[in-house]
Amino acid sequence: MLSLTGFVLLGIVLTSGVGALVVCGLVMTFGYAPEVGEKPAAAVRRLALTRAAYGIATVCFAVSALLAIVALGRHSWEVAAPPAATSTLDTAATVEELRERQARLREEMTRMAARVNELEARARVAETRVQALEATGAPASSPRETTPPVLPPRSGEQSSLGAASPVVSAPPR
Predict the structure, then answer these.
(1) If DSSP codes are grouped into helix, strand and coil, which group holds residue 123?
(2) What does the CA dihedral 145, 148, 149, 151 come to, rounded to 10 degrees?
(3) 64 and 12 Cβ atoms separated by less than 8 Å
(4) Are 53 and 25 in contact (CB under 8 A)?
(5) Least enclosed by CB within 10 Å: which of 3, 79, 109, 120?
């Protein structure tokens, strides 16, 4: 059984087709321009038929437009069917998965809170040291004034302070 939308779409196709056939028949009968030296009676007849055909085609296309509006409006009025009920086994599995995820998130939050507490304690220690240095009047060195630490050489390498070691490596291919 076709729904109302199916009938409306069929009506759109039919009315558009009739309007197009009327316009095509008009062009095939009279052409695009009137004949040169046409008799007055033939001109009146052509003009009357042309106006009638244009009127019929206009009504057909207007009905097609109205039916399209009805079809679009009908589509927006339709209510979606409710989702199918899931079985209790699916629901139980979903609930169990959510509980496991919740437990993982709680563990992660606990680790993050411990890390934040550790960082706050380190910040308090650093602040205490800065206050102690300021109280003694010792000049605090800025990070730019300090020299970077010298890393120990890797095994098999010489120190950069000693003789330069030749580096042999093949270019990547």
Answers:
(1) helix
(2) -170
(3) yes
(4) yes
(5) 79
Residue type, 6: G
pLDDT tens digit sequence for 53-70 = 999 999 999 999 998 888
Q: Tell me: the pLDDT tens digits for 71-115?
A: 877 666 555 666 666 566 677 788 889 999 999 999 999 999 999
Q: How far apart are CA 5 and CA 76, in angstroms?
A: 11
**How many Cβ atoms are within 10 Å of 63's Cβ, its own excluded?**
17
Enter the pTM of the model: 0.41
| E strand or H helix at 147 | none
Token couple for 132? 């102690």
CA–CA distance, 137 with 133 (Å, rounded to integer): 6
Q: Residue 86 corresponds to which amino acid?
A: T
